[in-house]
Amino acid sequence: MSARVRIWLFLGLAFALVVGAGVAYVQPNRVALTGTPVVAEVVESQQGDPSTMTVRFATDDGQQVESSTTKLYGLPPEGAAVLVRYDPDDPTTVVAEEYRESSPLSTLLVIGFTASFGAAVITWRRSRASRS
Fold this sequence. Notes:
By secondary structure, the protein is an alpha+beta fold. It is 43% helix and 29% strand. It has three helices and five strands. It has helices at residues 3-26, 30-34, 104-131, and strands spanning 36-46, 52-58, 64-69, 81-87, 90-96. It has a five-stranded antiparallel β-sheet. A hairpin with a 5-residue loop joins β2 and β3 (64-69). α1 (3-26) runs antiparallel to α3. The longest helix is centred in the last third of the chain and has 28 residues, at 104-131.
């Protein structure tokens, strides 16, 4: 197989891996990335594993919602105003504004992308060196 074909194969694999990493990151963070932001009042805070926060807020159409989430970084006190995001299709699905879920799969795919891209660069450099 020629160096040019190997380079394109490595680059194609790298592209597929980086797209897969993006999908693997976005999927569990859909509400955190695209949900509707709203200021909510903390109704209840419970320390634990995981910690839980219950919030009350009004949706864009005026519906009053009370919902709990474990998807948060800090645990604000009861009565505090916090910024959350909710799913407009299901307002009871709530996450704290700054929350992002890490994905081991996306991390592995980024590592694979780096290795594939590096292999393409090494193959390209070796093919240039052999021509000189």
